[in-house]
Amino acid sequence: MKALICTAPNKARIEDRPMPQPADGEVLLRMRRVGICGTDYHIFDGSQPFFTYPRLIGHELAGEIVDAPRDSGLATGQIVTVNPYLACGTCVACRRGRPNCCSNIRVLGVHADGGMTEYLAVPAGSIVPTEGLTVDQAAMVEFLAIGAHAVRRAAIEPGSRVLVTGAGPIGIGCALFARIAGAGSVTLHDRSARRLATAAERFGFEPGVVAGPDATTELAQHTDGEMFDYVFDATGSIQAMNAGLSHVAHAGTYVLVGLCRDDLVFADPEFHKRETTLLASRNALSVDFHHVIASIRNGAVPTDRFLTDRVDLDDVSTAIPALIARQEQVLKAIVTI
Length: 337
Prior knowledge:
The chain folds into two domains: 2-129 and 306-336, Medium-chain alcohol dehydrogenases, catalytic domain (Quinone Oxidoreductase, Chain A, domain 1, Alpha-Beta Complex); 147-280, Rossmann fold. It contains ten helices and 18 strands. The mean pLDDT is 95. It is 28% helix and 28% strand. The strands form four sheets. Strands 3, 5, 6, 9, 10, 17 and 18 form a seven-stranded mixed beta sheet that branches. A six-stranded parallel beta sheet has the order 13-12-11-14-15-16, sandwiched between helices. Strands 2-1-4 form a three-stranded antiparallel beta sheet, with helices on one face. The longest helix has 20 residues, at 135-154. The protein has helices at residues 38-45, 92-95, 135-154, 169-180, 193-203, 215-221, 238-243, 268-273, 286-297, 316-325, and strands at 2-8, 11-16, 26-36, 55-56, 60-67, 79-82, 85-86, 106-107, 119-123, 127-129, 161-165, 185-190, 209-210, 228-233, 248-256, 277-280, 307-312, 332-336. The chain is an alpha/beta fold.
């Protein structure tokens, strides 16, 4: 079978690999769609901090069940997505019901081989049925669950003011689920005016604020000088993450969704005088996957407005550099298998 292997930074190729043989309790999937996300771009360019080469990439997955254990409740031909966060089940995080931050976690496509291939075997417990969704929509559930999880972590109070920094797919996902959670206003902030315009045109958000020397003043004007009750950073940029504290209102909450290699540094007086709640948000839980699926079904998340590019599996190795080069124009690229 064909599989896309990232062999080193800036190097990827299609390899022929043997068909997987499902172990006890595993499901065999024929892969149908795989989303390409920022993690994949960072793997390709060598900036992903939790990664070793070579690796079969891909973790935004939609597949068709070929074979499943009899007691799984799954049926041949069923379209499903995959929760790609393989947890140990025994560590302190798992015991507390937080397998998304398992201390021994293995994420498909990052720590373990992923799904940008023709067939994949995964534990039956990782399968998430997606009745009522198309295969394209099923491939978008995972990245949307990242935003849904971050918003659930924040426990947004209805009517509150929300700022999302980073208007890529994860940031827009955060913004959508903040709106679903009852935020009174959602403002987007990004260094790209084009990304902000896309978010406004496609998803109905107000015109955002472009990052720059006057951005903090402009953001203050959006809130009568009080700043935002909840700030989500979805940039993965240490400069943006460090600067984001100044956008948090007194008694506000700052949620770090993006990931980078660098040290986070805040001025302690600024952090303390706000009595800031600081949260990290990592991956997602099953409840977030189901919330996303329900939100797609009821029309609250217009997935068709995310899809900007399609790529065939055979072309991915050459397509990724081009997608990286035009990230301002790309929201979601999906690989067809």
